[in-house]
Every structure is written in structure tokens, then in C-alpha cells.
Amino acid sequence: MVRILQFGRAMCLAALAIGLASVTVQNANGSWNSTQTWIAQGASGTGSVIQIDRTSIGSAPGILGGGTGGEFRVRANDLGTPTISGAPVTQFYTFCVEVGEFFTINESLRVNSIGNKSLNTNINLNAVTSGLYREFLRVKGTTNNFFNPSGTNFLYSTNDDAIKLQKAIWYFQGNQENLSGTEAVLAASNKFIAAGIYFRDVLNGGSTTALVNTTLYGGVQILNLFTSSNGVAQDMLVYNGSSAGIPAVPEPATFALFTFGLLGYCGISRRRLKTA
Fold first, then answer.
1. What strand order describes the sheet that includes 49-53?
2. Which of 107, 146, 161, 243 could serve as 218's disulfide partner, Cβ 3.0–4.6 Å?
3. Which pLDDT band holds residue 67 (cuts at 50, 70, 90)?
4. What is the total count of domains within the chain?
5. pTM, entire model
């Protein structure tokens, strides 16, 4: 009896370890796919000061060379020197959230707040936006596809991709001033709008507010940026590792129940071993 209980305990601990390992996010692309917790907010004027440019890093695909919107690189202040404590040498890529807000390349911008919505338009971060941005971080510089839907190529590798992904982010954030046509028409011409629809309807259960899988797609928030004179600048996406950016559904519920069930079983097995 003791051997059976010991075996059961070992199995449940092994299953628990496998379960925890299964939700680990793989970081294949270096620091731009890492959490950016070095950025600090400061409504009182003490937030991190950053600059934004379009300079490519390493062997990653080139950044959007012209036009409106991302892809952009966020750097610590002083033109790439990481003078902020904890800032990585290689900083991160991002996209604009608002159509009607602007900034100047290499302008010093203060992080006024980091939150769940655009400060001035009061638009919440969309779950699809979070999914698209996390997939961008995952596939940039690789040959992976967005969400790997069967038969569809969402590979991110060109400046045209950057333009389309920026427009897709604007679309799902409700900033549709530069887009026209039905969703089907937009999806036919923009693979990232199509990818977002796939994420929403297939991977996220039709929801645009709650994330089904916070481990893979959560942790995205919005940087609300101000100029040095406290004027409103652009809002940008950031991955800081916190799931607070989206009203989230625990991921996945069945896995959580299974995990707690295993823990309960392990506890019961341990008590039985003591009494035996």
C-alpha cells in the first residue's frame, strides 16, 4: 500500500512539473522578446525618458522605412546608451496605438503612465492587439508564422509586413480612420487583420476583451507618452510581463483545475503515507 501511494505521489509531482513546464514561454529572439520592466511610469514627471527611432538591430528584418506608423524601436535615453537602471543594451520594437497622436524621431519622451488603455482617447487595450503584438515579438527575426494557422502564411519579414501589422493594430484598437471596407475585404488585403480575426474567433473564443491564454498572449500594456513640455505624444505597446494589461480569463481553466486536483491528491497521499 505504501509503495502504491509513493508511486502515486511521485506521478502527481511529475505531472505537476510537466504541467508547469508546459506554460513556459520560449524566448528565441533575444531582448526584444523579453519583458521591459525597466520602464517606469511617472505622472509627476519622474517617469523613464526614452527615444524612439527606426534603426534595425542585428540580423532582424529591417524596420518600416517611411510612411505613418510603426514599426519603431524604443531606446533608453541618450541615443541608445542604457542609462536607465535595468535597461537592456538591445531595447525593444513596438507599434503606435493611436492614429491621431504624434512624436518626432529621437525626441525625448517621458513615460507618463503604463496601463490598460490609451490615456487621452480612453480606448481599452484590445485582446487581439495583445495577441498580435506578442506574436510579433515571438516571430520577429525567425521563419515562424503568426499563430501557425493551417494553409496561411503570416510570416513577418518585410517592411510591407510592418505597415500591415500597424494597420491591423489600429483596426482592432478601433482607430479605423485610415481603413475602409468590410472586415472580409480588409482581411483579404491585410494578412495581419486576417491573423487577428483568426486569433479572435479560433484561439480566443470570439472575445476581444478577455484573454483565454494569458501565459502566451498576456503581459501587454500601453505606454502613454508625454513630451518634455508635458504635451501629449503617441501611445505605444510594451510587453512588461504583467497580465494586468487585459481583463484576463485564467489560462486554461481546465489546466488550473487539473493542477489543483493534483496538489490535493498529493496532499492526501502524503497524509496517508504518514498514517501508514
1. 92-94, 72-76, 49-53, 109-115, 220-227, 232-239
2. 243
3. low
4. 2
5. 0.75
